[in-house]
Design brief:
Blueprint lengths: L1 H17 L8 E12 L3 E12 L2 H22 L4 E14 L7 E15 L5 H10 L4 E8 L4 H26 L2 E10 L4 E2 L3 E5 L15 E14 L20
Antiparallel strand pairs: 1-9, 2-4, 2-5, 3-4, 5-8, 6-9, 7-9
Length: about 250
């Protein structure tokens, strides 16, 4: 009977030891961020072609002819560029008299010719071709990057370097030792500033001043978590262990 009581006490002690929480190593979490500004290397033009006629067919035919002529000129000038027609429409023009209902007085054909060009230096040439072709407006001129990936990677690398430097500075200030890197996380999705857009409402009468390309900002931030080593993990270099103690004279 006594042996059974001793066994039960021993099992209870084992259970108590297993239920004790495991103490985690202390850690240090640091934040790093970086913003890189780069000049755009790609242009996107949305050139508006607008025609007026008495019938819907005439407005559509005139617009189609003018749009095709503009596309042909752009393709000849920039063989490697992407040129396509988007957003074609024909709509009636209404007259609203003081009395009575509205009446149709004509039709407007509208089309957008989109040009994607990887040569920033040709910006003025595109505008000149648009004006000479009879286009009425540049609905949108957008400055973008051909490939954001290298800039994103560079922003992440610099953010990580800043976080690492911060961790080392904190560790030195707190007189602790950094252990292994135990966690890396992206603080928030990489932010690329919105493409810069310029609109010319009337190409024929607009005084086209020099256009500033501006920059595109790519922002990244990261969080790094390092283990903090205990004194037992870092024995003093000057202390002499029994195994290395000098032999007695």
């Amino acid at each position: 009977m006594r042996s059974i009581s001793i066994l039960l006490v021993y099992m209870a002690m084992l259970h108590g030891q297993q239920s004790l929480p495991v103490t985690e190593r202390p850690s240090l979490r640091v934040h790093g961020q970086s913003t890189i500004s780069v000049e755009p290397d790609q242009l996107q033009f949305d050139i508006g072609v607008v025609t007026q006629a008495n019938t819907a067919k005439e407005a559509a035919d005139q617009n189609d002819s003018q749009s095709k002529a503009l596309i042909q000129q752009l393709q000849m000038a920039f063989p490697s560029a992407s040129v396509k027609s988007i957003n074609f429409s024909v709509n009636p023009n209404y007259h609203y008299p003081a009395q009575g209902g509205p009446t149709i007085v004509g039709y407007t054909g509208s089309n957008t010719v989109r040009l994607l060009l990887n040569d920033i230096s040709k910006l003025q040439s595109v505008i000149d071709i648009a004006i000479k072709s009879g286009a009425k407006s540049i609905n949108r001129l957008t400055f973008t990057l051909q490939n954001e990936n290298p800039v994103r990677a560079d922003a992440f690398a610099k953010a990580a370097e800043q976080a690492q430097a911060g961790a080392q500075a904190l560790a030195a200030s707190l007189k602790v030792h950094l252990g292994r890197l135990i966690n890396v996380e992206e603080g928030q999705p990489v932010i690329v500033s919105a493409p810069r857009q310029i609109t010319f409402e009337n190409l024929g009468s607009t005084n086209l001043a020099p256009i500033s390309l501006g920059t595109i900002d790519v922002h990244a931030d990261v969080n790094l978590t390092y283990e903090i080593l205990q004194d037992t993990d870092h024995p003093c270099e000057n202390s002499t262990s029994p195994a290395n103690a000098p032999a007695p004279q």
